[in-house]
Write a structure and sequence with these properties.
This protein is an all-alpha fold and 214 residues long. The chain is globular, with a radius of gyration of 20 Å.
């Protein structure tokens, strides 16, 4: 038997998705899911399950989750447009803040566990190693976006300037991938970088195609 692909069937499926996404429990569930990696890392650290080099494990894991969260944030608009699910827009701010949260944990882990919160040494390391400089720039962009993600900031900046500022998330994503790529270049190992780069290029390419299409 052929599956029912009629417009009525598709409309019903989209309606089910919209109802699920707008359900009062949807946002708390997503919040818990986004927070879970951080909880698991804390538990692993507390129970000595991070391997022989816990500091490196925390630095890498938090960086990975920051990049994954950025990919999810960038995917929301294409998914919303392609599948006609406007309700996805209500998750954008929360997931964007989680991207910043994991980026903050990444920077904190590096600054504290690797550099002992020695600010002169941290600044010297940023200047000396380009991949850390690029990562720092990505974090500064995410910090600016997190600080202006609330209604008061939108009113203060005005809609157009706020939108222009928040489009810099594209630059943050590219800088984050470049940070990861440059870090791996020393070992000539790009296997982990390639999927993230492909996803981000595809998501930004979709936006460019849509803009050119008019």
């Amino acid at each position: 038997m052929r599956a029912d692909t009629s417009p009525q069937r598709r409309s019903g499926t989209q309606g089910d998705w919209r109802k699920a996404l707008l359900h009062p429990a949807a946002k708390p569930i997503l919040f818990c899911a986004a927070l879970l990696p951080a909880v698991l890392l804390v538990v692993a650290a507390a129970t000595n399950q991070l391997g022989a080099n816990p500091a490196e494990a925390l630095i890498r894991s938090t960086g990975d989750w920051a990049l994954r969260a950025l990919c999810v944030v960038l995917a929301l608009t294409p998914l919303r447009v392609v599948f006609a699910v406007p309700a996805l827009a209500r998750w954008r701010r929360m997931l964007g803040l989680f991207a910043f949260f994991y980026a903050f944990l990444h920077v904190l882990s590096y600054s504290w566990l690797d550099m002992g919160l020695d600010l002169p040494e941290i600044f010297a390391d940023i200047v000396k190693r380009p991949f850390i400089l690029v990562g720092t720039l990505a974090f500064v962009v995410l910090l600016a976006l997190a600080a202006t993600s609330f209604q008061r900031a939108i009113r203060a900046l005005g809609g157009k300037r706020w939108q222009a500022l928040h489009r810099t998330v594209y630059a943050a994503a590219l800088l984050a991938v470049l940070h990861f790529f440059w870090m791996r270049a020393g070992k000539n190992d790009f296997a982990e970088v390639a999927p993230y780069a492909a996803i981000i290029v595809a998501l930004l390419g979709w936006r460019l195609w849509r803009r050119l299409k008019g």
